[in-house]
Amino acid sequence: MSLTMAEKQAEQIRQISGSDPYKCMKCGKCSASCPSFNEMDIKPHQFVSYVVNDNIEALAESKSLWKCLGCFACVERCPRDVQPGRVVDAARQLVERQRGGDHLHAEDIPALLDDDVPQQLLVSAFRRYRR
Known about the structure:
The protein is mainly alpha-helical. The chain contains nine helices and no strands. The protein has two domains: 5-98, Orthogonal Bundle (Fumarate Reductase Iron-sulfur Protein, Chain B, domain 2); 104-131, no CATH class. Helix 1 crosses helix 7 (84-98) and helix 3 packs across helix 7. The model has no long low-confidence stretch (mean pLDDT 84).
């Protein structure tokens, strides 16, 4: 049996993140601890469900994908170690690579520096795109 494109993408997200979204019990602790919660159209606990249900296209089109700060407060709060922040991060990587983006190298960072860019964003981007 061959996998559909969405199933392949969902599997890639699971592999990149190292997370098991099937362990999620929808308690909402991840969403409750998210500082970007009010700006997200798909909340962290819902994001995990989209991956479980292979609804990757909706994730790729959501603003939540880019509103996540990468602070991993959700990872710390998850009682089942689902690591929703890592799932969001992996989905972001997948979408960026499909759009033609590539890995970020350390030597690329100085050109990206800007006084208005939070340092956490740069560290998060480096962590994400160096894989």
